[in-house]
Fold this protein.
Amino acid sequence: MENISTLSADNIVVKAEQTPGQVSFYNFDEIKQYMDKGLSVYKTTEYTVNNLKQAEHDLKELKAIKKKLTDKKKELETAYTMPIEVVKKQLEELIDMVKVPLNAIDSLIKENAKAAKEQEIMQYATSHASVLGENADKIIGSTAFFNQRWLNATYKTKDWQADIDTIIKDASDALETIESVGGEQKSALRAFYFDKLSLDGADKFLKEAASDTSEADIATVEDEDAVIGYKTLKIYGTERQIRQVMTQLVLSDIDFEEIEDGMPKDMDEITNPDFSTFVCFDIEHTGTYGINKGDAESEIIEIGAVKFVDGQLVEKFDMLANPGRKIVPRIAKLTHITDEMVANEPPVDDVIRKFKEFVGDSILIGHNIKSCDIPHISRAAKRAGVSFENKYLDTKVLAKKIKDKKGWDSLKLPYLSEYYGISQQEAHRAWCDAEANAYVYLKLMNELGGKL
């Protein structure tokens, strides 16, 4: 046997034979000596992110050696009739010798692969969070930012990138809301948001913070304004303006009752999953840098839908649309829909008319559609002169009802699809998300007592 310092499975040849009364492994000492010398190299090599390829190569070779010795042990057990306990122990000793560096390298590869992936994720986050300006570092540095699921080998790049894009978008909206309605409490609200990356519970936080005021200050306030009364106001404004006013009331811990809702509505929301005939849809849109930054409103670039009758898929709809404006780069990266792809497609007006023909009077289903998809559809329909008065159901609202019971970490469609074992061939494309969403709805309907 060649005396080299680097191990190779090709150089390990077990020589064993059966003689009357016994089975002998007569080159055991030679192989052990060869392996001792070869394995010493692995014990002194330091594997890091910078030499992962070498680590993977070494791991592959050690696995090959382990397999060769294990296969030989099985072969001898089958071939020889005499007791081979001594030979088995000798082979097991050699196998155990390999296991030590093999397991160590395997563990290091996994740790360093995670470190490399985490570095890639944070580079992406840092780059894309730059739109948040001076708040970027505080968002990606928040303990609530990094999701350990992103490091799982099964969690695809496009999925964690989509998660980060959503966090950044939500952060931009939340910070804008704080700036608009936070008043003297802006600093406290920003600190609260940076900690949790959510404004849920902000009213309670502000109330508790106010309780730290000195007794003298509290007494003055109570003496000054102790009697609770009410005023009935009718507030006029856009949906966004009204939402900001109501947010301010909540954050100010002011109790209010919504008596009348005079905001324009084209479609009625329903929340009872007692039907199995419907159209499930999803849109992709251009995105926008913000009207307050001088950019135009977001426009539809794709509508995808599936029609179900009695719980069975019967027809599909998928059309790209020319939005008449540029697609925001991060949206193009997320959806893989480019300006060139939609340049020769029909305008949004034509696509919305075709979609209405497909939908008819069916109930519409979608995920988190109340705040995005429905407004896009309604606005496009009005421009095209199409009457869209269909009822709709939001599956995110359904999922929220059982989130705590199920112990779910998220209410996002990819998460729910994975939970229910529903594959998405091409996530973040409308046709694919719509089909997956339809099957998620059927699962949720069963969870909530509905019947097919």
Observations:
- The longest strand covers residues 300-309.
- DSSP finds 16 helices and seven strands in the chain.
- Residues 85-128 form the longest helix (44 residues).
- Residues 232 and 259 are 9 Å apart (CA to CA).
